[in-house]
Q: What sequence folds into this?
């Protein structure tokens, strides 16, 4: 087979993102300023991954990354870093995670995981946000050999470091890994830039991807043939 492992993004890849948005909307009413600031902070952190100044002294681990995130969020809102960290945890980490008990994954996704794992390929997960509790509530705990969060590398995708962390955890050359995501920029370009093949969950063909699919059987066929 062309691959030894298939690795997955989580948000918007294993489940339709609109299902989370629909459930999160009532919770975020009245918190539009926090939401805008968090989204802006994450966009800045994605972009900083390519900046020489950030790369010269990146956060050393997930805890340091969270501190940097809180600082940027605090600057955006004009509040203290400790207050910012508490808001992020409440509104965008643990608070959002509990909504996953009400979210159904993509149809055919579980069967695809079973087929891929049953073929002897290893399966792993790399998410930009902490994945463990989400996987538990989605009923997907225990399916992945490795479950990683990009934050622990000090970077967010599409930087090379999260993908390198994934390859190192699996003790594989990047070329032996197929990465599956839902963002052309963050997932496809990031994985390809790190030397991996890339597939994308999309109803439309994405030229940069090795595979664009919406029927999960197509992913199985591509990974195994």
A:
């Amino acid at each position: 087979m062309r691959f030894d492992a298939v690795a997955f993004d989580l948000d918007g890849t294993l489940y339709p993102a609109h299902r989370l948005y629909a459930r999160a909307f009532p919770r975020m009413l009245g918190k539009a300023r926090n939401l805008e600031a968090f989204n802006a902070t994450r966009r800045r952190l994605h972009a900083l991954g390519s900046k020489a100044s950030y790369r010269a002294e990146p956060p050393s681990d997930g805890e340091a990354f969270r501190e940097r995130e809180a600082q940027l969020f605090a600057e955006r809102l004009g509040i203290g870093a400790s207050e910012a960290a508490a808001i992020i945890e409440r509104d965008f980490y643990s608070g959002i995670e509990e909504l996953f008990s009400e979210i159904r994954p993509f149809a055919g996704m579980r069967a695809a995981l079973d087929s891929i794992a049953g073929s002897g390929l290893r399966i792993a997960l790399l998410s930009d946000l902490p994945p463990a509790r989400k996987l538990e509530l989605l009923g997907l705990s225990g399916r992945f050999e490795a479950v990683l969060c990009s934050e622990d590398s000090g970077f967010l995708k599409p930087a090379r470091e999260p993908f390198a962390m994934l390859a190192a955890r699996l003790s594989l050359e990047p070329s032996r890994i197929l990465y599956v995501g839902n963002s052309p920029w963050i997932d496809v370009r990031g994985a390809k830039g790190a030397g991996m093949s890339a597939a994308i969950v999309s109803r439309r063909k994405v030229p940069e991807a090795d595979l664009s699919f919406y029927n999960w059987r197509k992913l199985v066929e591509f990974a195994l043939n």
About this structure: Residues 32-48 form the longest helix (17 residues).
